[in-house]
Specification:
CATH topology of the domain at 90-106 and 223-422: Rossmann fold
Radius of gyration: 21 Å
Bound molecules: pyridoxal-5'-phosphate
Largest sheet: 6 strands, mixed
Oligomer: single chain
Distance between the termini: 32 Å
């Protein structure tokens, strides 16, 4: 199986090259040429597999140029660091099924993809005798999951910029207490947007990027998507039987997680029914589903900051399919959106979209109320991102169809929002409780691109 770009500008490439490329050379996103559909016999075989072995089976369908034993080693190592024997346990709460995706090292679902990506990068770089310096800006979750994904790995250094004093104390400690020699935390005296703008500008300098082997870990890397396809299939195998379907509700920001659900739905035929796309007040995607219009507006701050996103970086992948795999139409639409901030969809396109997705915007009051109500009824706590998904999932739950709500973060990561709901902060799990006593390391720099480049140049692997 080969990978192509949504904009049609590159010759097909194998999986491992797609992983190293990240963003396609023509500015588009990489996708497999075909999506494998899985038959009943295979599904029966998969039903008994452990999570890491299922991950090997699923990912191998997309990774023809990676030896199965190598892949099996990578998935086993990636999921052995999770602190739950089932990796992604399913629990019944409040009439819905919660899939806990937060048992990884940073207690958020991004660990599932980034642990795998870190191991995969290390393997590919070692195999080819190459090095990589990962550069990224974070507002919290992605940065810490990326750091934990590559800490101590050979051939990789990682530089993560976060806004000094503007990430939550837990998020800051999760990054700065990683003192492996290959991890460089940079607190910049500025905002997240300042950090992101500098990172973008540095990446656009092709000579600098090449000289310092810069790499990215953002959610457009196909390896992240494919690693997330696995848990949808895992849940569908456990809850849906012969001719029985399962629905999912997904708290959505960059459309990465729910796009993985879209791929899983395609692979499993009728076993996955509707995907409920839940947004917070940053509702560009829920408006897209419900009104057939994708239009930019200002970012608002909410208690679910990892979803405070307006332009969803993975949306282009869905557009490719909605436009019948026509890269010319995708390119035209991307240009039109860049110029006008708006895309409109035909009645037929809207109908196709709504066969796959239902969508709701969940505001702050409903988010906090959901945390409060489920805690009162069941003693179970959601983080605010999960609560957005649960609220929408409950609204779209059908009587005889299980609704799996993806729990994307541990409530203790977002203690302030939980406190607003129930009057006190959640108990810290052991992995967070001792963090403030650990040694920490972080360099404070000004929001000055020259300074960042200098620091990179002095510490990069070359
Ligand atoms: C990143 C993130 C999301 C959103 O995932 P997307 O793939 O961007 O849609 C939801 N919840 C949490 C806790 C996250 O960190």
């Amino acid at each position: 199986m080969k990978y192509i770009s949504t904009r049609g500008g590159i010759a097909p490439i194998p999986f491992t090259e797609a992983v190293m490329m990240g963003l396609a050379g023509d500015g588009g996103l990489l996708l497999p040429e075909t999506i494998p559909v899985v038959d009943d016999t295979t599904l029966d075989r998969w039903r008994v597999l452990s999570y890491p072995d299922l991950a090997t089976a699923v990912i191998s369908l997309f990774a023809a140029d990676l030896e199965p034993e190598v892949l099996a080693g990578l998935t086993r190592r990636s999921y052995a660091v999770f602190n739950h024997p089932e990796v992604v346990p399913l629990v019944e709460r409040g009439g819905i099924t919660v899939m806990e995706l937060f048992h990884g090292p940073t207690l958020a679902f991004k660990d599932i993809a980034l642990q795998f990506l870190g191991n995969l990068f290390e393997y590919l770089l070692g195999r080819d005798g190459r090095r990589m310096n990962i550069l990224g800006a974070t507002s919290g979750d992605t940065g810490s999951a990326a750091i934990h994904g590559v800490r101590g790995k050979a051939g990789i250094n990682i530089f993560i910029l976060h806004p000094h004093g503007r990430v939550s104390p837990v998020q800051e400690l999760q990054m700065t207490t990683v003192t492996d020699a290959n991890v460089f935390n940079i607190a910049i005296k500025g905002t997240f947007d300042d950090g992101q703008a500098m990172v973008k500008s540095i990446f656009s300098d092709a000579a600098f990027k090449e000289k310092y082997h810069l790499g990215a870990v953002n959610s457009i890397n196909w390896a992240r998507i494919v690693a997330q396809v696995v848990y949808y299939i895992y849940a569908a195998l456990r809850l849906g039987g012969e001719g029985k379907r399962v629905d999912f509700s997904v708290p959505t920001g960059n459309f990465g997680d729910i796009f993985a659900g879209f791929i899983a739905r395609w692979m499993l035929g009728g076993r996955i029914g509707r995907l409920v796309l839940a947004t917070n007040g940053n509702d560009i995607l829920s408006r897209f589903v419900n009104q057939g219009e994708y239009s930019r507006s200002a970012v608002v701050r909410t208690s679910s900051p990892s979803m405070d996103i307006q332009v969803a970086s993975n949306f282009e992948r869905f557009l490719f399919y909605l436009y019948d795999k026509d890269p010319g139409r995708v390119s035209a639409a991307i240009n039109e959106f860049a110029a006008s901030g708006r895309l409109l969809f035909s009645a037929a396109e809207q109908e196709t979209t709504r066969e796959i997705f239902a969508a709701d915007m969940v505001d702050e009051a409903a988010t906090i109320a959901t945390i409060r109500e489920v805690f009162a009824a069941d003693g179970y706590l959601f983080d605010p991102h999960t609560a957005v998904g649960v609220r929408a999932g409950m609204a779209h739950k059908l009587d005889d169809v299980p609704m799996v709500c993806l729990a994307t973060a541990h409530p203790a990561k977002f203690g302030a929002a939980v406190k607003r709901a129930i009057g006190r902060e959640p108990e810290l799990p052991p992995s967070l409780a001792g963090l403030d006593k650990l040694e920490s390391r972080c360099r404070i720099l000004s929001a000055d691109e020259g300074e960042i480049r200098q620091y990179l140049a002095a510490n990069a692997l070359i």
